[in-house]
Amino acid sequence: MSRIVTVGRRAAVQAHVERYKRFGEMTVCGAVGPADESLDDLDVPVYDSLAHALCDDVDGVDICGPGAAYDNMINAARDAGIPIRCDPPFALDETQFDRLVSGASNENGWLMAHSPHRFSRLYSQLRSDVEAGAIGTIGVARIKRTAPFGGLGWNTSYDGVAAATDHVEALCSVLAHDIDVLDWTFGTVGRVFARARFSERYDHAHAVLTFQDGGRATIETTWSKEETPSPRVSVEYSGNHGRLSFNERDASTALQEKSKPLNVDPPENDCRGRLLREFITHIQNSEKPPLDITPINASQVTIAVRQSVDEQVPITIAEESL
User: Fold this and answer.
1) Other Cβ atoms within 10 Å of 124 Cβ, number
2) 6, 100, 157, 179: which has the fewest Cβ within 10 Å?
3) CA distances from 260 to 49, 62, 141, 263 (A)
4) Taking the C-alpha atoms of 16, 145, 311 and 167 in order, what is their torsion angle to the nearest 10 degrees?
């Protein structure tokens, strides 16, 4: 029976606890939240610190949100040699990144920071189509996203992030998911140029990514402070042979079976559910990922995006750092 401690804000922890309860062969043995929120009604033991939660036998720590926002938690779990899962980015500056990546390896501990987008049937189908030559040579990939908004699934783990971080960090934390899926689909990003603006109604970031193997991507993220516009997400991959696209209105119909929409996945088998199941599988099989920290690229590119916003210049990412 695997024992997991969850860390994060209430909405995110609740979403993960509900999925873990459906898995079987594991239990959520503790939860740690921020000082300004109560987790007492989640039907799991609540601790005032991760150090106290780790006093009992724990097999994994699930940080329900961007790892960069929980640096102390990651350090505590790594020092204890316990496997960790978090959302990207796991770092938002080079000092934080270098400390984690260059830190001494503990033979039992590792950090998995995949975006749940990698486990989405839609993004997986898009990637398979790209690999099969559906768009030919990539020209431009475009992703537009609005956050935060309620409900299970999209961006739930980022509910409350803006209250705990500055504008740029909140925007970069959402951008990191799209950076990760683009890196996964089209290869290593070598150069970024990003701008951001802020207002009483919304914050907005626009980033242009150039891939080392050719082609580019544009990502736009809007952090809405009032009414959430529609569509909330729009994705387009285009090349010299074709174009692939979807938005969230297509999410239940983009994958067809005999011309009928597939049923919506239950929470334990949606993209986040499959991501959490992958984490549990690694733990139960004592199967360490290929690297102590995986993947690394999304966080490194997100740091470059943040640097580009701050300095208002393009940033080239050194190959040896990827």
Assistant:
1) 18
2) 100
3) 48, 36, 28, 9
4) -60
In the chain, what are the domains? Answer: 2-115+272-295 (3.40.50.720), 117-263+300-321 (3.30.360.10)
pLDDT tens digits, residue range 215-253?
A: 999 999 988 776 666 667 899 999 999 999 887 766 544
Pairing between β-strand 138-147 and β-strand 243-247 as defined by DSSP bridges: unpaired
Mean pLDDT of 125-142: 94
Percentages helix, strand, coil for the chain, rounded to the nearest 5? Answer: 40, 25, 35
Residue 158, CA atoms < 13 Å, CB-side half-sphere = 28
Q: Is the pTM of this model over 0.85?
A: yes
Give per-residue pLDDT as tens, 12-43: 899 899 999 998 888 999 999 988 888 888 88
Question: What is the CB neighbour count within 10 angstroms for residue 265?
Answer: 15
d(C-alpha 68, C-alpha 97), whole Å: 9
